[in-house]
């Protein structure tokens, strides 16, 4: 039986089905989805893993990869899972919207107002940028985790949020979460200047 080694996930792209693991000795190993154990379909950057090193066509690779210290999925992985499952329309998300206080009722089978699918553009902002810190709800997360949109309270429309404002908590952000933002007007609409969870 091959000896098991340990390392940390450097990165993994669920859509491309591969990534790299950095061994505790400092080597970089290719890992493909088919090499993941325990029925896993992806890995999260920073997870601790154990694996067997095998010789692949282009060098050493990780095989029989088992996660020893799991981390929550990133927004990119959650978006991937939602697309694989056919979209974001769970009753959990609808309950969150009810608590926020401005969700419209929906009929069975009707598309939800807040989704991580293609963005609806029926809340376009016109006028001056609102001042102060506003309550908002996460409306859309880019599958690559580069940006998201939040819907502002009091019918102020939505605002673009660049990943630099949420990278530090990206593994915890979900569509439907309530946040607080300050915004300013840009040539493409409202843009968040600050973001609090």
From TrEMBL:
GO terms for molecular function: DNA binding. The keyword Glycosyltransferase does not apply. Keywords: DNA-binding. The keyword Transcription does not apply. Residues 4-67 form the CSD domain. SUPFAM superfamilies: Nucleic acid-binding proteins. It holds the Pfam family CSD. It comes from Herpetosiphon aurantiacus (strain ATCC 23779 / DSM 785 / 114-95). It comes from the Bacteria. This is Cold-shock DNA-binding domain protein. SMART domains: CSP (SM00357). Residues 92-101, 110-123 have a biased composition (Basic and acidic residues). Coiled coil: none annotated. InterPro entries: Cold_shock_domain, CSD, CSP_DNA-bd, NA-bd_OB-fold. Residues 82-130 are annotated as: Disordered.
